[in-house]
Design brief:
Layout (H helix, E strand, L loop, with lengths): L10 E5 L3 H8 L4 E5 L2 H6 L5 H11 L5 E4 L5 H12 L5 E6 L9 H9 L4 E6 L2 H10 L6 E5 L1 H6 L4 H12 L5 E5 L6 H9 L3 E4 L1 H5 L8 H18 L7 H13 L1
Length: 255
């Protein structure tokens, strides 16, 4: 059976920090939310965190948008989270599962969630962390649990059963959504949907590949051959064949 995106129930969140790209993606009805982080923002040349957030929220006023704290102590982390949450009604504040020293962020997650702050708990990888986050999040307050399936795959572990286990652990908490983070290929959208995730983040590069889903493979093969030939011609590559022709002539003469 040919794959079809419209048969999937998973939501696509665009991941990035380039405002021009975000503006284009905001016009795409398939994109149900947006995420970013300090690393992506720095790579995009963002220097004013609040100004960037304001621009993004102006472009995306009615869909979830996730902005991340960057403090490394729980008190300041909580202060940053409350400030970020005040910027808009559609914000989910990204809080890491632990500090850089491995201290659990469970207490600040519990405190914020109990006050109605919608969180996106990020950098989650282990099943134990999923349980800790689930238990810390207040019942009834919407939240996202971002498990970095792509980074798990980078370690040589199959993320699909891992994510399926995480989904099962969150199933009795309908206000909690499981997010497949750091996908490595478009096939991960189908993996995430099958595992029971509610959300997957995609970069602009992966979003561009959505048009290829279900593409005829014979046609795709010809298009690929055409791409290689056209690029070789555009680059004006040459392979001198005089020596080859001489060898061929000598071989014919010897017969």
């Amino acid at each position: 059976m040919e794959p079809h995106f419209d048969q999937l129930g998973i939501k696509l969140f665009a991941d990035g920090a380039d405002i021009a790209s975000i503006e284009r993606l905001a016009a795409d009805p398939r994109i149900k939310g947006f995420t970013t982080n300090p690393t992506l923002m720095r790579a995009a040349g963002v220097s004013d965190y609040r100004g960037f957030a304001r621009d993004l929220l102006n472009l995306v006023p009615n869909r979830p948008v996730c902005f991340e704290v960057f403090a490394d102590d729980l008190v300041t982390m909580g202060d940053q989270a409350r400030e970020i949450a005040s910027w808009g009604q559609n914000i989910y504040v990204k809080v890491p599962v632990s500090t850089t020293q491995g201290e659990s962020c469970g207490p600040v997650i519990a405190a914020l969630s109990s006050k109605g702050v919608r969180l996106n708990v990020t950098a989650v990888m282990t099943i134990e962390q999923v349980v800790q986050v689930r238990d810390a999040l207040a019942e009834g307050t919407p939240a996202i649990v971002s498990v970095f399936a792509g980074r798990i795959a980078d370690t040589g572990r199959d993320p699909v059963p891992h994510m399926a286990r995480a989904a099962a652990l969150l199933r009795e908490r309908p206000e909690l959504e499981l997010l497949w983070a750091s996908p490595r290929e478009l096939l991960n959208v189908f993996h995430a949907d099958a595992a029971g995730c509610q959300i997957i983040t995609l970069t602009a590069e992966l979003i561009r590949k959505l048009s290829v889903i279900g593409h005829d493979l014979e046609r795709y093969s010809r298009e690929t051959v055409t791409m290689f030939r056209n690029d070789a011609l555009a680059a004006r590559y040459e392979i001198p064949l005089a020596a080859v022709k001489r060898r061929r002539q000598r071989a014919v003469s010897a017969v």
